[in-house]
Amino acid sequence: GFQSASLAGPLCDEPLEGVCIAVEGVVLLQEDPRGEGEATIQYGPLSGQVIAAMKKACHQALLAGSLRLVEPIYACEIHTTVDALGKVYGLLMKRRGSILREDVKEGTSIHFIEAYLPV
Prior knowledge:
Order of helices and strands: HEEHEHEE
Radius of gyration: 27 Å
Number of strands: 5
C-alpha cells in the first residue's frame, strides 16, 4: 500500500519525495463464523483489500498535513553574442527565469549568462 501511495501522490499522481509515514499498528477484523462478534486475522483473501486500504490511508494522512508542489528548475549556462543579448534577456524574463551571473569573455563579444529557468 505504501509503495503504490508513494509512486502516485494524492495531488496529481506524481511520485513523492522526502515522506515518512510511521504505522503504529494494524488490526484486521473479520466476522466470526460462529456469530460471536469479530475475530482477528493475519493474512488471507483480504490482502488485496489491505493494500488498497493502506494506500487510501496514506493518501488521507498526506492530505491532512501540509502538502506542496515543487516546480523543476534548470540551471542554464548561456553563451551569446552582443547582438542577441537583448533577445536572451527577453526570453529569460518571459519564462520567469532568474539570472545569477553574467560575464564577458575578454577580447571577444561573447557573453556568458548563468540563470535558473523553470522547466
